[in-house]
User: What shape does this take?
Amino acid sequence: MKDLIIFVPTGFEDIELIATLDILSREGITYDLFSVEDKKIVKGKWNALVETRVFSAEEDTKNYKGIFLPGGPGFEILKNKDYIYRIIKELNNDKKIVSAICASPEIILNSGILTKDSKITSFPGFAIFENNTQKDIEVYKN
Assistant: This one.
């Protein structure tokens, strides 16, 4: 089993996903890339192509150490997938990493795992949470 599960929608922000994958690889952090659509090759907002596995509801996600959700227009696809919310809640309950970038922190917010004292940061256009610090990075609990 890999360290992280990463969901890749059509329209992901290329730099947010590819730079993250580069940094994870350099640090020896392993990951599985899953498409949330019925295709293995997923195209980013700026035409980068990423090879993935198609996610299935039968996937065992309990052994991952965390989740990462890229931003970009594709986050609209991610936020309509009920199983992503289930996985976020399971990982959070097990004190594992729940992470997102740009617009995708909205998915974490919508999952219900944040409390009134939670701190998040996101793309400024998605500053819908009163405790959105607008810092470059925010770490809260796990």
Summary: The longest strand covers residues 4-8.
